[in-house]
């Protein structure tokens, strides 16, 4: 039972310390009855739009709201720019792959030619002229 008393006493001490600390008052938010005040106590000025317009902004611009022609043009230009970037990216990837495939094909042909030549040299019995000579004489 003594550990529960110690725990409760510690929690009570922490609660009292938090309640009497100077930081506790800064966390409290006073209810505003008039104009909003800044940190220096000066009244805040409107930055973008009126308060009534700000509260109605999302209600007026629902998903079904009609967009202006400028908004439609801006969105269309963004879509076209994204399509162009995507096309260039895929074209570059295709060119890289084609270059790789061509080099790989050339290397494979060279290896095949070398191995065929080695096989002919190894199996040449001297009775007939080599294959290269037959091609030039005909």
Verbal overview:
The protein has helices spanning 2-20, 22-27, 51-60, 69-123, 131-137. With 138 residues, it is mostly helical. The longest helix has 55 residues, at 69-123. The protein is elongated, with a radius of gyration of 42 Å. The mean pLDDT is 79.
Provide the gyration radius in Å.
42 Å
| Shape type | elongated
End-to-end Cα distance: 113 Å
Largest sheet, if any?
Answer: none
Helicity range: over 70%
The poorly predicted ranges are none
Mean pLDDT: 79
Q: From N to C, what is the helix and strand string?
A: HHHHH
**Structure class:** mainly alpha
Task: Count the E strands.
Answer: 0
Provide a quick synopsis of the model:
The chain is mainly α.
List keywords for this structure.
single chain, 138 residues, mainly alpha, 5 helices
Question: Mind sketching the topology for me?
Answer:
Blueprint: H1 2-20, H2 22-27, H3 51-60, H4 69-123, H5 131-137
């Amino acid at each position: 039972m003594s550990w529960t008393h110690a725990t409760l006493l510690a929690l009570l001490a922490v609660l009292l310390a938090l309640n009497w600390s100077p930081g506790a008052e800064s966390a409290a938010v006073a209810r505003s009855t008039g104009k909003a005040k800044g940190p220096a106590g000066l009244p805040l000025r409107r930055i973008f739009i009126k308060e009534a317009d700000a509260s109605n902004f999302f209600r007026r611009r629902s998903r079904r709201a009609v967009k202006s022609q400028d908004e439609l043009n801006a969105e269309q230009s963004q879509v076209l720019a994204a399509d162009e970037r995507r096309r260039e990216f895929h074209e570059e990837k295709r060119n890289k792959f084609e270059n790789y495939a061509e080099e790989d094909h050339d290397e494979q042909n060279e290896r095949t030619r070398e191995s065929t030549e080695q096989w002919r040299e190894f199996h040449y019995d001297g009775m007939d002229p080599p294959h290269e000579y037959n091609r030039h004489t005909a």
